[in-house]
Amino acid sequence: MSSNKVHLAIFASGAGSNAKKIIGHFNHHPGITVSLIVCNKPGAGVLKIAADHNIPFLTIEKETFFRGNAYIDELRAYNINFIVLAGFLWKIPEKLIKAYQGNIINIHPALLPKYGGKGMYGSFVHEAVIRDKETQSGITIHFVDELYDHGDHILQVTCPVYPSDTPALLAQRIHALEHEYFPATVEKVVMEKKNAGAL
Ligand code: GRF
């Protein structure tokens, strides 16, 4: 019965490959369903993914997100009780964090606390890692608080960085890790909360 399920919203600004993996993972899942895609970029690839999977989407704009209701009423109208950020580039306003306290998670394509914060997204992250001659990078899945890339860590997974790497090559390796670990981690966190009666 879908009313007993946890309803996820995925927030994404880009291509949406992680969103796609998460949608696939929860297809026919007994306890969790992806009910909404939220996107701040008209024309972003993730919107086509939503349409292909018959998932409703909400295209949001800055004024309402940062100075209005942060779309909390709309999220409630879709019964959303957990938010997954998968390549969403805007900072989450305090109002929304309070409304979903402890129930928002993000994935970052590096080993936080290094290579995080404002401006550290996409290829900027991988360029910085390579420029600093790091020998490993990876992914961080973490709870979201008021600061960029700052909340408690849930999982980190590492991968090597090779001297011959380009940002594009490293990005591919990181994306593969994200696709492997993010859906299952979302499931684990959500089901633990659900079973504890916290969702
Ligand atoms: C991922 O690398 C994620 O870590 C970062 O943005 C990227 C999104 O990729 N926050 P995609 O849109 O899921 O393909």
Automatic annotation (TrEMBL):
Reactions accelerated catalytically: N(1)-(5-phospho-beta-D-ribosyl)glycinamide + (6R)-10-formyltetrahydrofolate = N(2)-formyl-N(1)-(5-phospho-beta-D-ribosyl)glycinamide + (6S)-5,6,7,8-tetrahydrofolate + H(+)
Domain Formyl transferase N-terminal as annotated: residue spans: 8-185
Enzyme class: transferase
Pathway linked to the protein: Purine metabolism; IMP biosynthesis via de novo pathway; N(2)-formyl-N(1)-(5-phospho-D-ribosyl)glycinamide from N(1)-(5-phospho-D-ribosyl)glycinamide (10-formyl THF route): step 1/1
Gene3D superfamilies xrefs: Formyl transferase, N-terminal domain
GO biological process: 'de novo' IMP biosynthetic process
GO cellular component, as recorded: cytosol
EC number from the UniProt entry: 2.1.2.2
Keywords assigned by UniProt, alphabetized: Purine biosynthesis, Transferase
Classification via PROSITE patterns: GART (PS00373)
An example molecular function term from Gene Ontology annotations: phosphoribosylglycinamide formyltransferase activity
Family: Belongs to the GART family.
PANTHER family: PHOSPHORIBOSYLGLYCINAMIDE FORMYLTRANSFERASE (PTHR43369:SF2)
Protein name (record): phosphoribosylglycinamide formyltransferase 1
Gene source species: Panacibacter microcysteis
